[in-house]
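Lecture notes, continued. The same structure-token format from the folding unit now serves as the input rather than the output. Read the line below as a description of shape only.
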């Protein structure tokens, strides 16, 4: 895309953008002006109303303090411009001067990482010498000092801070295409627009993670996608996925990659036009299969169109279609899904199968999350347990009878007993049952736990089928200017426990605790988004009085003497910690 076309499309999308602005600051010791429109466009195309501010040239430390309250900060810190033309001067500097330079930059790294410790997302580019590293046989001073700074910054970055491997971006673009040394000599503009296209593509998943737009499910076709061949025509013995055959090796490798994704919490599902029994037999009995039926959270294997199957998967998993990535070998199927379900990301199996494993590896970026939790490895089993619950629900004569048969047990956690990593995940990924949709990183959650004016509550849920994990949380702020009053900053619950009335049992426990702490008034708010319509009247249902009602915001309050607990009989509650 030509730069003029970028500007035209950027103008069109920015004028049509709605919703709260997502503020990003880019601070740098080189000129990076082209990143503004390219990154804004990349995010606008995915529903993030991004506004990027460029910091002052070579003013990283001061700008890190100036923009610390932004939603995200990106740091371009180039080795060659730590001092002017370091790529040449480094070989002439005495050792004591090099050591002084190291000390200066280390002090600056300390200041920058500390200034940005509370910024929700910080992306710091690694120090690189690759654009000036023409000798592959020898170590050299520029390489050593870049490596030194990278090791140092790795030891200093906080949980909200990501080190971006700039060398990988350069490899993907190519050294000559990524840089313009003539421009750098004249204007300190090191990188080309081609570099920024790849850079923005690489970092988008981090921004999607903290704005609730990361992907959750890889939906796979079977024929010529999981294996080579067509099961209905070639038969089980005719399909190939053996690692030692020409046709099978790419598919065996892809399945191995996908199995690794599953262990990291990425959900796998099937959407295939096939006989269900034939596919199930392959998954259970084919000696070369790496993936088996219990690796898939759901399997829509039938003869209906894939758009309908995809919509059914969305309902079954209770996940939005915008969290799906669809992989298929058919141009027709990919085209149909792209046309009818534009919110689904589509990936076509490449004609050159040697490219297929890297195509799948590249998908992983779409599932990036700042926080990893212990529940990721068991996520598929949790969704499979839910499918079994739904099957049994259909056999019950009433919802109440079914819920009563589950043996639901809710365990309350408070403050230091709550899992910081999982709570951060919940704020970043939960969109539907989320009253305010505020996104917090692990540092934020830990700060709330440590501060006396906040209380953090969470719950885990289990039943006779298994554990749902930690699936709900609330962040409560004590009003230091109004005696015995609190404000609910966040109240959210994972979609996997919707329909069980766990939110009411959870709220009952919160109110019990607040009464114990002599709190008399609770205030709360609902902030409208495109996805949380289902909870717009939750506080009304809990007995709160509406104070302010606007299109995108409602403010509520309740005197705790008027609160009427639900006392859900079929949910047993237990308390952990203080």
């Amino acid at each position: 895309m030509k730069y003029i076309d970028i500007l035209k499309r950027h103008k069109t999308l920015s004028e049509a953008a709605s919703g709260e602005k997502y503020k990003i600051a880019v601070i740098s010791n080189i000129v990076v002006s082209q990143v503004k429109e390219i990154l804004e466009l990349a995010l606008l195309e995915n529903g993030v109303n991004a506004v990027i501010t460029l910091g002052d040239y070579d003013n990283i430390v001061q700008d890190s303090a100036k923009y610390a309250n932004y939603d995200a900060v990106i740091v371009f810190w180039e080795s060659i411009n730590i001092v002017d033309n370091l790529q040449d001067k480094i070989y002439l500097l005495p050792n004591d001067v090099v050591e002084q330079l190291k000390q200066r930059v280390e002090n600056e790294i300390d200041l920058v990482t500390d200034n940005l410790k509370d910024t929700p997302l910080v992306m710091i580019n690694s120090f690189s010498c690759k654009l000036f590293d023409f000798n592959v046989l020898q170590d050299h001073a520029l390489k050593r000092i870049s490596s030194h700074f990278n090791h140092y910054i790795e030891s200093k970055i906080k949980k909200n801070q990501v080190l971006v491997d700039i060398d990988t971006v350069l490899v993907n673009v190519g050294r000559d295409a990524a840089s313009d040394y003539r421009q750098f000599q004249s204007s300190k503009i090191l990188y080309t627009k081609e570099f920024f296209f790849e850079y923005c593509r690489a970092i988008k998943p981090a921004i999607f993670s903290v704005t609730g737009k990361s992907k959750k499910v890889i939906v796979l076709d079977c024929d010529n996608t999981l294996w080579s061949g067509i099961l209905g025509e070639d038969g089980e013995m005719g399909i190939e996925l053996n690692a030692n055959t020409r046709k099978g090796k790419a598919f065996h490798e892809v399945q191995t990659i996908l199995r690794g994704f599953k262990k990291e919490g990425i959900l796998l599902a099937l959407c295939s036009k096939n006989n269900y029994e034939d596919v199930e037999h392959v998954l259970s009995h084919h000696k070369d299969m790496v993936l088996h039926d219990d690796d898939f959270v759901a399997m829509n294997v039938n003869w209906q169109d894939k758009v309908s199957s995809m919509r059914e998967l969305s309902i079954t998993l209770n996940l939005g279609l915008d969290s799906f990535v669809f992989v298929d070998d058919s141009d027709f199927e990919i085209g149909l899904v792209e046309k009818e379900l534009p919110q689904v990301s589509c990936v076509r199996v490449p004609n050159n199968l040697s490219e297929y494993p890297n195509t799948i590896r590249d998908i992983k970026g779409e599932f990036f999350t700042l926080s990893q939790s212990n529940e990721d490895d068991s996520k598929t089993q949790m969704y499979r347990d839910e499918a079994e619950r739904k099957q049994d629900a259909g056999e019950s004569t009433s919802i109440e009878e079914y819920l009563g048969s589950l043996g639901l047990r809710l365990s309350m956690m408070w403050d230091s007993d709550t899992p910081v990593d999982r709570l951060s995940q919940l704020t970043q990924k939960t969109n539907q049952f989320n009253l305010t949709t505020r996104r917090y990183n692990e540092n934020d959650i830990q700060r709330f736990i440590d501060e006396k004016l906040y209380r953090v509550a969470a719950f885990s849920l289990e039943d006779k089928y298994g554990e749902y994990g930690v699936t709900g949380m609330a962040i409560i702020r004590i009003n230091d200017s109004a005696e015995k009053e609190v404000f609910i900053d966040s109240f959210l619950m994972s979609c996997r426990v919707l329909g069980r009335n766990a939110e009411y049992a959870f709220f009952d426990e919160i109110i019990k605790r607040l009464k114990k702490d002599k709190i008399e008034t609770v205030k709360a708010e609902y902030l409208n988004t495109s996805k949380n319509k289902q909870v717009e009247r939750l506080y009304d249902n809990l007995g709160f009085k509406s104070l302010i009602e606007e299109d995108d915001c409602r403010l509520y309050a309740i005197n705790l003497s008027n609160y009427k607990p639900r006392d859900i009989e079929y949910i047993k509650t237990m308390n952990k910690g203080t």
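Point for the exam: The chain has a mean pLDDT of 90.
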